[in-house]
Design a protein that fits this description.
8-stranded parallel sheet, 7-stranded mixed sheet, alpha+beta, single chain, about 575 residues
Length: about 575
């Protein structure tokens, strides 16, 4: 009957009240008149249903555009299920998600672009693929003419890494992203100049105790970012110019070093603590770009988590951390997110966690890399963070130089799309900044508010051989995130895994009833059906009163259980 079906929204994100469409692609092996039933869900509840008659010609892929269900909201996620019927029998089903938000920073699903060669002109496969992952804010990595002179002066130019680039392509990609409801951030290293720029202005640089300029690969030289310095004035103006030409903000990069340096001022030397300088630079840049475009914003890179205690309260759209050793274990990713949340509970948190297991020249087994990637994504998402990983045309970052990305296998693309569909539909439960983490106070050890029974340990520690329990709550909800770590050879987030975790069946959960329960449901990005499963429960005695006792469906990698409380 059907030889192909796919479904996705026509934009990565929508504004409140904005019109849009769900695109359904269909192909059949025979001429057929089919019925298409499209259901819209907000969390667990169906909110709309539409039925359409579709006439298909044999071998011709056709597109049906289904009007979006919209409502006036600051932020909400929706699931979509499309079922194709022939002669009243269901012959195929497809799923997708979308969200509505007042600004991309409500849910910054961060992606990347790094290829701006002239051969990319009018080639928008990358934008289309990113849209299917719902990536709503995209970093243009190494898009510029120079690090100290951002906006190119001519169409074709050689970038500092020796790549021939096209400013025309940069502008085309900007327009295409905006057409898909995506924001675009221009990469800009906050203190990097090329060597000739520093040589012409030695008093603008930053030096070590031996009087040598700080530099990276003898190409990028570190400049003085103290407030009011000539370099600071210069780079902030460069950032303003980037927004003037169409960007929606700046990705402010640093290299993690130096942490302290020497500046030269009127013949004397002064010690500079860069951690003390970053907040003022972030705030000044944010104010500068907002003067050009009111909705513009900035994201600052806390390399290896440095110096997030200083920068967290600055005027930026998210707290962004580029993850490096000694942060090497899955549970330590959650530690980064928890610490950032403690510093500013209102900003979303993004981890840039590259996956070197996919690096093309390393020659690793792709399934090995994919098994590890799912666990890394699950750990970040279930902990309430976002992950800068995807971009280009089904690309995945493998290292900090973005052009060395890998391309995912088509089979893995399907799985990763399910994970991103999941965090879009349930984003207000997974990434809500009002969530309180009670993992270490509600379950395991002496805590009996939530208990699990199965053939393996259940604990909030994230240990190999256990099911990792992340328990959160907010008004109206208890949310249980379960990540399966049973049967893994290690818990290093950068590593691939020889096999997926050992599936857990028959897990029983007992949850103290602190207030009346409206319903209990579960969902998982590992479920090909991508549907909510309502759980029956019985009321049983508990040492603190009464509890709800229920059995969970099969746990593969990551499952979420939602206990919705009565008002």
């Amino acid at each position: 009957m059907l030889t192909y079906i796919d479904m996705y929204p026509d934009q990565a994100q929508y504004k409140s009240g904005q019109a849009g469409s769900i695109i359904v692609e269909l192909e059949t092996q025979e001429d057929r008149v089919l019925e298409l039933v499209v259901e819209f869900y907000k969390l667990e509840k169906q909110v709309a249903e539409e039925t359409f008659e579709i006439s298909l010609e044999k071998g011709l892929r056709q597109i049906a555009r289904i009007p979006l269900f919209t409502e006036d909201t600051e932020w909400a996620g929706y699931g979509v299920k499309a079922t194709v019927f022939y002669d009243k029998f269901a012959v195929s089903t497809a799923y997708t998600s979308y969200d509505i938000a007042d600004h991309w920073s409500r849910a910054p699903r961060y992606g990347f672009l790094s290829d701006f060669r002239k051969e990319e002109s009018e080639e928008l496969r990358d934008v289309k693929s990113m849209n299917k992952f719902h990536l709503n804010v995209i970093q243009f990595y190494d898009w510029m003419y120079r690090h100290d002179d951002l906006v190119p002066h001519q169409d074709e130019f050689l970038d500092p890494m020796g790549r021939m680039m096209s400013y025309k392509v940069v502008r085309e990609k900007l327009a295409a992203l905006h057409d898909k409801g995506m924001a675009a951030l221009a990469y800009g290293a906050v203190y990097a100049s090329l060597k000739d720029f520093l040589q012409a202005r030695p008093e603008w640089g930053l030096y070590n105790r031996q009087g040598e300029p700080f530099q990276l690969i003898d190409l990028f030289y570190i400049m003085d970012i103290t407030p009011g310095s000539p370099w600071t004035d210069h780079i902030v103006e460069q950032f303003r110019q980037a927004v003037k030409v169409g960007f929606d903000g700046i990705h402010m990069d640093q290299y993690g070093f130096p942490k302290k340096g020497i500046r030269r001022v009127e013949g004397r030397e002064e010690l500079v603590d860069l951690a003390e300088c970053y907040p003022a630079l972030i705030d000044r840049t944010s104010a500068a770009v907002k003067e050009i475009k009111a909705e513009a914003g900035v994201i600052f890179n806390n390399v290896g988590n440095y110096p997030i205690s200083k920068t967290a309260s600055s005027d930026q759209e998210a707290l962004y951390i580029e993850v490096w050793p000694p942060i090497v274990r899955l549970r330590e990713l959650k530690g980064l997110i928890d610490n950032a949340r403690s510093l500013d509970k209102d900003k979303p948190i993004i981890l840039s966690a590259y996956l070197p297991s996919f690096y093309p020249k390393a020659g690793h087994d792709k399934e090995w890399a994919e098994n590890g990637a799912l666990l890394t994504m699950a750990s970040i998402f279930a902990s309430g963070g976002y992950h800068l990983l995807l971009g280009e045309d089904n690309g995945m970052l493998t290292m900090p130089y973005y052009p060395d990305y890998a391309v995912m296998r088509p089979e893995f693309v399907v799985e990763v799309r399910r994970y991103y569909d999941f965090i879009v539909r349930f984003g207000t439960l997974i990434h809500n900044t009002q969530l309180e983490d009670v993992s270490y106070t509600y379950t395991a050890g002496v805590n009996t508010e939530i208990t699990f029974e199965g053939r393996v340990p259940f604990a909030p520690n994230g240990d190999i051989g256990s099911v990792w329990t992340i328990i959160k709550r907010m008004q109206g909800y208890h949310i249980l995130q379960l990540i399966n770590l049973v049967g893994l050879e290690d818990d290093y987030w950068e590593h691939g895994k020889k096999k997926r975790p050992e599936t857990q069946d028959g897990v029983v959960c007992t949850l103290l009833i602190e207030q009346p329960i409206e319903c209990i449901f579960t969902a998982s990005p590992d479920d090909h059906n991508q549907e909510v499963c309502f759980l029956d429960y019985e009321i049983v005695p508990h040492g603190q009163g009464l509890a709800a006792r229920f059995t969970l469906p099969s746990l593969e990698v990551w499952s979420m259980v939602v206990v919705k409380l009565s008002e």
